[in-house]
Amino acid sequence: LLRAENKDKATPLHMAFGNGHVKVAEALLGQVGSDHERMRMLTAKDVDGRSPAAVARAMGHSALAPQPAAK
């Protein structure tokens, strides 16, 4: 279920981040046993190439995904 995708390749984590559901995002990430799997969930791309954090930023939920530091 954690790896499920809809027709737009959005995962449950994309949906939680995109809707600003911090506790749901925490619960989903808490179900993962390894750092590798957690990173895989956090870097999954939807059909538009966006990670869950990018979706959160696009939807104005900066608490879930602060802007990356400028180089």
Write up what this structure looks like.
- The structure is a single chain.
- The protein contains four helices and no strands.
- α1 runs antiparallel to α2.
- It is globular, with a radius of gyration of 12 Å.
- The termini are far apart.
What is the SS-derived class? mainly alpha
Percent strand: under 5%
User: Gap between N and C termini, in Å?
Assistant: 36 Å
Strand elements, count:
0
In N-to-C order, the SSE pattern is HHHH
Radius of gyration: 12 Å
Globally, the shape reads globular
**Helicity, in percent?**
40-55%
**What is the typical, i.e. mean, pLDDT?**
89
Instruction: Extract low-pLDDT stretches.
Output: none
Main sheet characteristics: none
Number of helices: 4
Lay out the secondary structure.
Elements: H1 12-18, H2 22-30, H3 35-43, H4 52-58
Helix pairs in contact: 1-2, 1-4
Descriptive key words:
71 residues; mainly alpha; globular
Outline of the structure:
With 71 residues, the protein is an all-alpha fold. 45% of the residues lie in helices and 0% in strands.
